[in-house]
Every structure is written in C-alpha cells, then in structure tokens.
Write a structure and sequence with these properties.
single chain; 709 residues; mainly beta; 13-stranded mixed β-sheet; 46 strands
C-alpha cells in the first residue's frame, strides 16, 4: 500500500512532464531472438575477468534489482552512438516505507550488472561504453533538464558532475560473434576497488519526493552499429511491476524467476515507465538530426532530445533498463526499529556498530556504544541480540519497540553509563567481540541483529530499548601457524601459513615487530616451506625506518584502491599513485619478527599509547630524490585497524619542506572519509617546516614509515 502511494505521488509531481512524454511505440523496441549470454565479471581496476557464476563479493547484497524481463517479450532499446539515455530508481533508507531489512543511509557499491545488445564485433579494448550515476538528479526523466554526456557532445558533464563515472574502454567488454550479427550480453562490473559510496534516498533521508529520493543513471554505447539505424545497438529493457513487485530480490525480499533466463530477478524500487534521451547537437523538441557521421536514432521521429516511453505499460513494455546494484553488506549494517525516548528531554540514544563483519574467536575488543543517555549510578545496560532475523512486526513493550526474533540476552556483559544523575551525559559501551566469542550458539556464517536495553527509573516502564543494528556477518577469524623467515629488512619475501585468509590481497596487511614495520600482501593461496604445501600468503617487507623485534600482526579488513591526486603547491607539482586503504580491520598477533636492517632515506615513528600530539616525521631524513612512498597504520579507539599507503612522484626535486607540504595534502585529500570519521589529520610546521605531523588523538596505536626513492 505504501509503495503504491509512493509511486502515485511521484507520477503526480511529474504530471506536467509526463504529459510531454513522447511515444516511440515499437520504433526502438527491438526483439531479442537468441539467448542472452553472460560474459562474467570484470574487475575495473585490474581488468581481470572471472567466469559467470563466480561471485567476487561474498558479503554483497542486492540493494537495487531491475532484472525481470517483461513477460510478453524479451526486448532491448535501440540507441544510436550519439545518444545517451537516463533511467531512475531508489535505494531505500532504513526508515523509508516498505520492507528492506539491512538497508543503510549509504552503501559502498561493489558490483553493478547491466545488459546490452550489439552488432559490432569486439573492437580493440572491448566495447566503448560510458556510465554515470547521480545520487539524485531531478527525478523521473531527469526533470526534463537536458544534460550533455561528455566532451564528445560538449560540456564534459558526466565526468565533472556525476557522483560516479566509468568509461569501459580497455576492459574487453565483448561484442558480437560476427559483424552485422546481433549478440546480447549481461556483464557484471566489479567496482569494489573504486571506493564508490552511494547515498540512499538521494542524500540519506527519505523525503517522499521523487526528485529528491531517486538516483539517476546514464549510459551510452559509443560504437556505431554496422547495421545502421535499422539494426542499432542498445541496452536491454527490464522491469515488470505486475510480475515482480518493485523492491523484490533486494535485501531479504524474495525474488521472482525470470521466464526467459530462469534466473532470480526483481523489478527496481520506484522505477518509472519512461526515460530521457539526449541526442548530441539536438535541442529539446528540435526536428533536426544529429551531425554526421551520427546515426539519426530517435531524432528521426522529430522530437529530438526529450522524455520518451514505449506506448505505456502494461499494454507495452515497461520503459526501464536492466540494472542490478550490489553493496557490501558486511561493511554497512543497517538500522531498524525506533529508540524509546528517555526520561530526559532531547536525550534519545543512537546505537553505534562496527562498519564491517565480526570474526569469531578473534579476541581483542570491538566496541559498540549507546549515547547520549541519562547519566548516574544504578542504571545497568545490556545488549540483546539474535541470529534468527527480525520479527514481521515490532512488539510494543513497556520498554519500547522490540524487533528481534528469538532474542538472547548478553547479560554477562553489563555496562554502566557513568555521568551525572539527571543529566544527559551518559554513555554505554560494550565489547561486542567479547560477547560474540562467549556466545557458543553463534557460529561462523551467522548474521547478528542487536538492540540495547538500559535502566531509566523515572521513565514509564523504568527501562528503554534503543533502535537496532544489523545484519552483521560472522566470519571465521584468520589463524596463523608460521612466519618464514623470522627476520629481514626491505624486500624480504615472507611466507605466512594459516587459515581463513581473505581472498583478495588488498583486504590484508602485515604489521611487523609490534607495528614498527609493514609488509604488503602480494598473493593468497598454496605456499611451500621446505617440502610441505600449505594454505597461506606471501608478503613483501616495505622500507624499514626504525629496527625492532616483536609480534607479527595480520590485519584483515576491507581494502580498496583510491584515486590518485595531482597537486601544484609550494612551487612544485606532484602526483600520487598506488594509493590504497584498508579499513575496519581486525588484527591477529602471532610469533615474533626481527625487523632489520634499516633502509636508507627512510624515516619512521610509532606509538602504542594515546597520541594527543600525533606522529611527527622529519622529511629531511628521506634524502634528495623525487619519490616518496609511505605506509601509515592506526588502531582506532573502538579496536578497528586501518592502513593507508601510496606513492608520491614529484616533477623535479623537492625540498624537505615541499615534501612535507605535499605528503600532508595527499594524506588529507586521498583518505578524507576515513580520516574525518577517525578524527585524523596531517599538517606541517611543527617543530619545523620540514616536519609532517599526523594527528591521531585518542588512538590506541599509530605507526608511519616514509621512504625516499
């Protein structure tokens, strides 16, 4: 019911535009007469392909799914190489109408799948397509406001204004099996290494306004079809609201089975029967054709750049395109239920959660907090949790809403708020890792949801429930059995044996000698020590500043490549490459490593205590060279580990002061989001202009190594 009202309100708000929609009828509605092929998955960072059916992101969740074929016919939308089309949908926030367990206000997109048909044989580097996504862009038919796609049509709009942009050139997207013969493909793009974060409901808040809540995606095939206007290339049409309810096949919502492919499918939430098509060089409602050598495309029908549909669903196909978006569910637990207001005005707690999975048996601490709450003694609080999911409808108890199905109490781990009685200054803090490790009923493969319960005697019921968080995936903690060799310096290749390692080397980092040094994981798989073949990983020791002996720590979390930076400041230009971050990591200690000898032109500093003054390095020690490489590790106050790395190349030879300024700027710009969350920043000038200071106030550990090359 909510969904029907939601769609209706969107159509009503767009009444003026809908009336101006132009009916293309069957003109660009092209029948698919052969089975659609699955090309597999390509990592857009490395260009490596994996075979169909082998998922690259085990913790990924469908957050948008518009893949169900119209039950009457399988079709694609014929488009010219000088046209770009725009479609819409909605990724829900936790509190928006409908069922979407695990929804979040934003999510890291790790994969997106699309479908296309082409008459072109595979060109060098693969099919040339472009994609752009906006968290919001004026709603249905982009609000009727034309937008050029790129420099080929003037304006460079996609590359500068889109929240996410991707050019597929060089990725090897397949074409037809022979020129002039049509082949249709589905392709999954692994974008997990790009750090693409997408806001739900436009900006993280549901407004019940289609122009504010819907995302927009644009797409374009730049290869001209050898079949001409009669046999165009194009993108596959999908979505059938009568067959599959909008929002199906996302989160925990059930899927339909596609009548043509037999695959699980859904209809995208708040997709709309219409799409905007921009034609290069042709204005809205203009009768002219695009400039040669462009194929005429939709401009043939006299309405130019405009809002189009295919005659009206359900009599005709639903004018929407095949798209499936997956987000990293392990990295972003959603919220559910509503916190009961406390006995004090404006004192309703927010429950925090780790931004990633939990590892069974990892030890240590991963904190979750409820704040603000009324302070004072005699007000214990506990967590309640479940691995059985959520109730169909919340139960309204004397303590507020309970949403957990078959919940259990973590009564052995009570917390006190501290603070002052009658004042909203309390904070409950629980070690979620200890609760997990002690819960014998929770095993690897489970997913947890939890709420907090706390005493509040003046309030009705004398206690309150907070809102809930989840799902949080429970994974097996890595285990280490051997590190070989046990001593070495820069370039030493380590073999580390054990189990339960991540599949992607980017998701791991090795800290050496109690965090004084770093080793980069290069491969995961069978490793040989002596005559024995075991499961393990290979890692290479980074440049060594200070030498030391101490434990080896394997950090396992979520790794990604980060866009490089170009800076022109202090009279010199620099470019950063190989920029990566590993966030929300858990650390496993093992054995001991003797980190020696030190490397030339290398400086390092580390601290195992709270560091209000930060970590300070003198760039004079990096020598006279044009390249800096760095590794920076940090343990946050809630127990998570982070590692940041990169390479900065200068145009010319920088002075120590120029190195310091550029390193600080590169760190702050490249790692803006995690730095902001953790309260980290880099600056210069203390105690002199050649020094960089990385402020890490309150951190439990920090270490950095910078080397001149």
């Amino acid at each position: 019911m909510h969904l029907a009202l939601r769609i209706a309100s969107g159509i009503g708000l767009l009444a003026g535009l809908a009336a101006a929609q132009h009916d293309l009828g069957a003109h660009r509605r092209m029948a698919i007469t052969a089975p659609v092929r699955n090309a597999g998955t390509v990592d857009v960072v490395t260009g490596r392909w994996s075979v169909p059916g082998r998922g690259t992101e085990s913790s990924a969740t469908n957050v948008f799914n518009n893949t169900c074929t119209w039950t009457v016919a399988q079709l694609y939308y014929g488009l010219g190489e000088c046209e770009d089309s725009y479609d819409e949908g909605r990724i829900p926030t936790p509190g928006s109408p409908g069922t979407h367990v695990g929804a979040a206000t934003s999510q890291k997109i790790v994969e997106f799948e699309f479908a296309y048909c082409t008459y072109n044989t595979t060109p060098a580097g693969g099919m040339n397509m472009e994609f752009a996504f906006w968290d919001k862009l004026n709603g249905n038919c982009i609000g009727g406001i034309p937008l050029n796609h790129s420099s080929t049509s003037g304006g460079a709009q996609w590359t500068t204004l889109a929240d996410f942009y991707l050019d597929t050139s060089g990725l090897g997207l397949p074409g037809s099996t022979s020129s002039g013969f049509r082949t249709c493909w589905t392709v999954t793009l692994d974008v997990s290494g790009l750090g693409w974060t997408m806001a739900s409901d436009g900006e993280g808040t549901f407004n019940s306004l289609q122009d504010q809540d819907k995302f927009i995606w644009g797409k374009r095939i730049n290869d001209q079809s050898p079949g001409g206007s009669a046999n165009p290339n194009g993108f596959m049409l999908s979505g059938d609201p009568a067959f599959s309810a909008p929002g199906n096949c996302t989160y925990t919502n059930p899927c339909q089975t596609d009548l043509y492919t037999g695959s699980p499918c859904g209809t995208g939430l708040d997709t709309w029967d219409g799409s905007w098509i921009n034609v290069d060089g042709v204005q809205v409602n203009a009768p002219n054709l695009p400039p040669l050598p462009c194929l005429p495309g939709v401009a043939t029908y006299g309405s130019g750049t405009n809002c189009y549909f295919l005659g009206g669903y359900p009599t005709n196909a639903f004018d929407s395109y095949y798209l499936r978006l997956q987000a990293d569910s392990a990295a972003s637990p959603g919220t559910f239920c509503t916190s009961k207001p406390s006995s004090l005005p404006s004192c309703t707690p927010v429950l925090s959660a780790p931004d990633g999975p939990l590892y069974k048996g990892a030890g240590g601490f991963v904190l979750t907090k409820a704040t603000p709450v009324p302070g004072g003694a005699g007000k214990p609080g506990i967590l309640v949790y479940t691995k059985a999911g959520l109730l169909g409808s919340p139960i309204n108890t004397a303590f507020g809403f309970l949403c957990l199905n078959q919940f259990q109490r973590a009564g052995a781990f009570p917390a006190s708020p501290g603070g002052t009685n009658g004042v909203c200054d309390g904070v409950y803090s629980w070690n979620l890792q200890a609760i997990l490790d002690a819960a014998s009923s929770v095993v690897v493969g489970d997913s947890l949801h939890f709420q907090a319960w706390y005493r509040d005697p003046p309030n009705p019921g004398a206690a309150n429930f907070t809102h809930g968080l989840g799902p949080i995936a429970i994974l097996a903690a890595p285990s280490l059995s051997d590190v070989n060799p046990s001593s070495g310096g820069e370039g030493t290749v380590l073999t580390i044996l054990g189990a339960n390692f991540a599949n992607n080397p980017l998701d791991m980092q090795v800290l050496l000698a109690g965090g004084v040094g770093f080793a980069d994981v290069t491969a995961v798989g069978p490793q040989t020590i002596g005559a024995e073949l075991n499961t393990g990983l290979s890692a290479t020791v980074f440049s060594v500043g200070n030498t030391a002996s101490g434990p080896v720590t394997l950090v396992q979390g979520t790794g990604s490549n980060v866009a490089g930076q170009n800076l022109n400041t202090a009279g010199i230009v620099s470019n950063s490459t190989l920029v990566r971050q590993l966030v929300d990591g858990v650390g496993i200690n093992f054995g001991s490593f003797n980190l020696t000898p030190g490397s030339s032109n290398t400086t390092s500093v580390n601290s195992g205590t709270p560091m209000p003054g930060g970590l300070t390095l003198d760039m004079t020690a990096t020598g006279t060279n044009s390249v800096l490489e760095y590794r920076f590790g940090l343990k946050s106050s809630d127990g998570k580990l982070f590692v940041f790395q990169g390479r900065i190349t200068f145009v010319g030879t920088p002075s120590p002061t120029q190195k310091a300024l550029h390193l600080a700027s590169h760190l702050n710009t490249s790692f803006m989001q995690p730095f902001s969350t953790l309260g980290v920043s880099a600056s210069t000038g203390i105690p002199s202009s050649s020094h960089v200071r990385i402020s890490t106030a309150g951190a439990a550990y920090g270490g950095v190594v910078v080397s001149g090359k």
